[in-house]
Amino acid sequence: MKNLFKCSVFLFLVISCNTPKYTYYFDTGKYLDFSQGKWLLNKSKSNSTIFDKELYQRSKEEFEVILGDSLVEINDLRVDKLIPSKIDFEITKQELNELYSLTECTYLINIKGNIITEGLGSIAVSNSDLSTSNQASVFIWIYNLKVGELISSSQVYAEVNSQDSQFDNNSKWKLSTSSHTGMVNGVKKLIGRYNKYKAK
To answer: Is there a domain that residue 6 lies in?
Structure first.
């Protein structure tokens, strides 16, 4: 047991974890009332070939916490409704009104992820003089389909920096959260903000 404890302490000193810092922005619509209407979740879009599906799945799970049965997946409606195969992130008022007529939903949730840099990888040497980072962002735009307007615009920015002060200087290596994981965790945290600030 003593040897196991010594080994654990050694690993803690040799390897540390470098996790993202998350920054949140709400351009508009920070405080929303989720108690009325049906909310249509569009397929999420991202430039991540690794976690694109995970981005959508995590988004659906987190919005279900807020909306319950009021959340509607767009693919479920395509079974018996003539909905366009692709709905852009930015939509015109006319397109929003047409989508309202087709879906009978009141709101549309659009989610877009972006892998900005993956400079660190997953393991980095602590004494490196190079300043590198893993960066990702997620945008959420929510539209009112009936009136054809954007009612909420938000963003979360995730960054893991090689020179981050939270890194333990006694450690030789650090395990860094990838940009892809930062993106998926970021959407969870951003939707959590909607839950925190929702109108009571």
So the answer is: no
Please give the model's pTM, rounded to 2 decimal places: 0.84
Would you say residue 173 lies in a domain? no
Question: For residues 168 and 15, is the Cβ–Cβ distance under 8 A?
Answer: no
**Does 1 map to a domain?**
no
Max CA-CA distance within the chain? 70
Positions of the chain with pLDDT under 70: 1-17, 121-131, 162-174
Number of domains observed in the structure of the chain: 1
Q: Choose among 134, 15, 94, 111: nearest CA to 54.
A: 111
Task: For strands 21-28 and 149-161, give the pairing.
Answer: antiparallel
Q: Give residue 78's Cα distance to chain centre.
A: 25
Q: Is the dihedral of CA 179, 185, 190, 193 positive or negative?
A: negative
